[in-house]
Amino acid sequence: MKVGDSKPVGPVRPLRPVQKSGGYQRTAAAAPIADSASIMGIPEAELTPKVRDAIMALMSEVETLRREVQTARQRMEELEHFADHDPLVSVRNRRAFVRELTRLISFSDRYNMPASIVYLDLNDLKTINDTLGHAAGDAVLMHVGDLLVRNVRESDVVGRLGGDEFGVILPNASEEAGRRKAEVLADVIQQNPATWDGKKLQLSVAYGIYAFTPGEDATEAMAKADRDMYERKKSMKEKK
């Protein structure tokens, strides 16, 4: 057969390079892209009723697990919050306060940064509990805690150390700066009485200050601030 007499043999396939010989060879025609609906990448044509039901059940289980994980994460955050905060006053509890104090002492040692702790003791809480009831005493403690939080820096840490005692950690504050801050806090508490059953309850606090020293233990630092507070309180009673 002559070349000119040859008959067409169908559509010409595209050429693609062949790495081995550097030549070209013809490839199969590209398959059309399916436009049918699919679930999880499985074409609709392959979804038998059983496969569809199994996939939908699996997707439902995955969504349920996702919600359970989210709920568990939220619950864990709540438990962490309760573990670190006082159950009555919206401030750190003693355990969390000591932990934060330990961290700050280490940070202060490393970067040679001054820091202080203020120890506050609320006066006459027992009298309030005995005369007005423990609900009134609880309201007073919450009032004092709120005043402290609203009158310190975001970097400061407020904690309830037990009973009628509060502490404030003051990063980057010398003993003199800590003393000035303690005076301000004591004045704020005195100038803002609590209210119970329509009555104004005049409050006052005694305070102590201690500036950290390198390598000091957090409990020891708190004890020294407590002793300073006790000496100040004793001196105030003697003056009366």
Written account of the structure:
A four-stranded antiparallel sheet has the order 6-7-5-10, with helices on both faces. A two-stranded antiparallel sheet has the order 1-2. By secondary structure, the protein is α+β, with helices and mostly antiparallel strands. It folds into two domains: 43-84; 94-239, Alpha-Beta Plaits (2-Layer Sandwich). It starts with 14 loop residues before the first strand and ends with a helix. The protein is built from six helices and ten strands, in the order ββββααβααββαβββα. Helix 3 crosses helix 4.
Q: What percent of the residues sit in helical stretches (DSSP H or I)?
A: 40-55%
H/E element order:
EEEEHHEHHEEHEEEH
CATH architecture of the largest domain: 2-Layer Sandwich
- The stretches of 5 or more residues where confidence is low (pLDDT under 50) are 1-36
Task: Count the beta strands.
Answer: 10
Tags for this model:
alpha+beta, Alpha-Beta Plaits, 2 domains, four-stranded antiparallel sheet, two-stranded antiparallel sheet, 49% helix, disordered N terminus
